Each structure stands twice: as structure tokens, then as C-alpha cells.
Amino acid sequence: MSEHKIGLSWKKGPEDFKYESYDRTHSIRYSGGQKLTGSSTTETYGNGELVNPEELLASAVCSCHFLTFLAIAAKSRYTVSTYEDNAIAVLEKNTDGKTVVTQIDLYPKVTFEGEKIPDQEALNGLHAKAHKNCFISNSIKSEVTIHPS
Asked: Which residues lie below 8 Å from residue 24, measured CB to CB, with a gap of 6+?
């Protein structure tokens, strides 16, 4: 169907290569030319000022839900004027004792304009349909929960 490629590069710094001390800063390059600097979480000795994989996963789910929601709203003849979200990825041990992202919560806040404004039931339906059709959510094992406001 389609391929989506990124490039990642990392180089050891002058510090000793020990788990507690090696630099986790790396570059991620996207096919459109954007570059992102990432690290691991501070809990795993990373730089908390840089994006980490857990945040990237949450942002992928959040962005996919948002884009799918806009498509469904437009096809349903609703005019979205603003969309905001504050996603949370929860990292914890699963039943096998492995650390995984067990849940991603989305908190979308959408405003509409025009003559056709969805009531809460219709809004929940739009989000449910977006969630069902979001290919990122459909691709991961973590539970994804939508909390529209």
C-alpha cells in the first residue's frame, strides 16, 4: 500500500559506554526533511528536554485520531474550528513483567462552527468512528481510550 521511512542516527560520545552514563541523544530524520532530536526518558538516564519514544507513540496515536476525526467530521458536514488534545501514554509492567505502554488516553477538545453542531451523543459517535478507523490505534496492542470534552 505505502511505505513510511525514517532515518535514525546515533554516535557514541567521549563518555564510557556504561548503561548509567552513555548518551542516549539521537537524531530522527523524516522523509519530508524534518529532523527531530530524541533521547530516552529521564528514568532511563535520558535527556528530559528531548522527545522520547513513549511520547512519540502517544503523539502518533493522537495525530492519527485527530486526522481521522477531521476527515469524518468533514464528510459528515460538520465544520471543525479548533481541535486540541493532551494525550497521556502510561508505561508500566504487563502480566509478563515486561515494561510496555499499556494505555494511551486522549483528551480531545473540539469546537465547531456553522449551522450544524453535533450534540454530545453525535460527538461521541464521531470520536468512536475516528478511533475505529485510526490505523495507528489499530496497529498497537496498548489500550487507547478517548475522553472527549
From this structure: 10, 39, 40, 44, 45, 46, 47
